[in-house]
Design goal:
Blueprint lengths: L3 E5 L8 E5 L2 E5 L8 H7 L5 E5 L5 H13 L3 E7 L1 H10 L5 H7 L4 H5 L9 E2 L4 H17 L8 E2 L1 H19 L4 H10 L6 H17 L7 H20 L6 E6 L13 E3 L2 E4 L11 H12 L7 E4 L4 E4 L14 E3 L3 E4 L15 E3 L6 E4 L10 H4 L4 E3 L11 E6 L2 E6 L1 E2 L4
Parallel strand pairs: 3-4, 4-5, 5-8, 6-7, 12-14, 13-15, 14-16, 16-17
Antiparallel strand pairs: 1-2, 1-18, 2-3, 8-10, 9-11, 11-12, 17-20, 18-19
Helix pairs in contact: 2-10, 3-6, 3-11, 4-11, 6-7, 6-9, 6-10, 7-9, 8-9, 9-10, 10-11
């Protein structure tokens, strides 16, 4: 097998791609929370990751990366979207207008009139990542339940996380569901009882599961907002441990062609930014919701390109490459693995016309979406060489493993794509 390999891992949700080269191992996205990413890496004898990259702050991309952070997997550096800092800045100064917050999350006036909530959230003491995570836990709980904990006065972050866990479990008891209980018991076994960071991660996992269970037809807005808040709670809770090296990437909306310092990788539509998140004077519910919408906007995401003298890889993630403009194209002048934008769905259709290869038959397009009922982009179906993580014909999972050897990419595992 060649020294450069590219894997699409069989995560249960979203996408996770692993690039191994002479310069180290790079993970692009991690699938969903509790998707067993660390186990998949260890089974493949993957040791230290040089970088774990998140192309978009969605549960199917950032969730598994949070699992690696929480479990202490050896990772040199994390690359995260700067929008998570902007969301933290807004959440850190949101004080009043909880009914406005429920309104922008999609709760109807009739729903809100029966809730009897206070006009503001409980106060959280202190400052820093844990306090911000605690405030976002309250906002996420309100978004997916329409309720706030029955607490008054000023709470510590640990008290806030505990109150949110109690609120979510109380709703389980009232509705008869039981899907949150195993998560809670697992979290308590891992020490979430007294450690605020572990309790923050328990909150993140419970919020994610609760959001996933909301009806998409009735509570679509609340479902999406609570899912983003669950991720943000996990990020800022874990960053309170202060042992992670994080590089933030800001989208510029235009093509960038500068290598990230000391890495054979460039972010095509973003630049690394330094400094802590700044906090505005006072954020309204509309400000906070806009920060969430920017993270979950269709086609929004970072795109990364790896390259050496012999081969390349283009990771589109959620991006439709709109930053290229209407007429500009991205040239590929060496055999390249390209991940289908938005996992091969229709939302990334325009991206295919923005990639121009000197030798298309030497490239391999891969897609990882597991829904056999979801339509595949025509641009993907037109590519001369393509394969799927999920066998389109047999409808079974077959991990994609590609190796670069003797001037071309060879497929060691993965089915030919028969999508039409």
């Amino acid at each position: 097998m060649g020294s450069t390999t590219f894997r699409v891992l069989p995560v249960n949700r979203g996408e996770a791609c692993l690039l191994t080269s002479r310069r180290g191992v790079y993970l692009f996205d991690g699938g969903g929370l509790s998707g067993g990413l660390a186990r998949l890496l260890r089974e493949r004898r993957v040791g230290r990751l040089r970088v774990a990259v998140c192309t978009a702050a969605t549960i199917g991309r950032l969730g598994g990366i949070l699992d690696l952070m929480d479990g202490g997997y050896p990772v040199g550096e994390y690359w995260l979207p700067e929008g998570l800092r902007q969301l933290a800045a807004a959440a850190g100064t949101f004080q009043k207008g909880i009914y406005d917050w429920l309104a922008v999350c999609g709760w109807s006036a009739q729903d809100r009139s029966t809730l009897g909530l206070p006009g503001s959230m409980p106060s959280v003491s202190g400052d820093g990542p844990l306090t911000v995570a605690a405030r976002m836990a309250l906002l996420g709980a309100a978004a997916c339940t329409g309720c706030l904990p029955d607490k008054t006065g000023t709470l510590t972050p640990l008290e806030t996380f505990s109150a949110v866990v109690e609120l979510l479990l109380r709703q389980v008891a009232e509705t008869g569901g039981s899907d949150l209980v195993p998560l809670c018991l697992d979290g308590l076994e891992r020490g979430a009882g007294s450690d605020p960071v572990s309790r923050a991660m328990l909150c993140a996992r419970l919020l994610d599961r609760k959001a996933e269970g909301l009806s998409p037809s009735r509570f679509r807005g609340a479902r999406e907002v609570a899912g983003i808040m669950a991720l943000a709670v996990g990020v800022w809770g874990l960053l309170a441990r202060d042992r992670f090296r994080v590089r933030w990437f800001r989208q510029t909306g235009r093509l960038e062609q500068h290598l990230v310092p000391r890495h054979p990788v460039m972010c095509l539509n973003g630049v690394p930014v330094a400094g802590e998140f700044g906090q505005p004077g006072r954020a309204t519910a509309a400000d906070l919701f806009q920060a969430v919408r920017r993270l979950m906007a269709p086609g929004n995401g970072l795109a990364f390109r790896y390259g050496d003298a012999d081969c390349g890889a283009l990771v589109c993630g959620e991006s439709a490459l709109a930053f290229m403009g209407r007429r500009a194209v991205l040239p590929l002048n060496r055999p390249t693995v390209i991940t289908a934008p938005q996992q091969g769905g229709l939302g990334g259709e325009q991206a295919y016309g923005r990639v121009r290869s000197a030798a298309p038959e030497g490239d391999i397009w891969v897609r990882s979406h597991h829904s056999f009922t979801r339509r595949v982009a025509e641009g993907f179906c037109r590519q001369p060489v393509r394969c799927c993580l999920y066998d389109c014909r047999k409808r079974t999972v077959q991990e994609i493993l590609l190796a670069f050897d003797r001037g071309k990419w060879l497929r060691a595992s993965g089915a030919n794509c028969s999508c039409i």
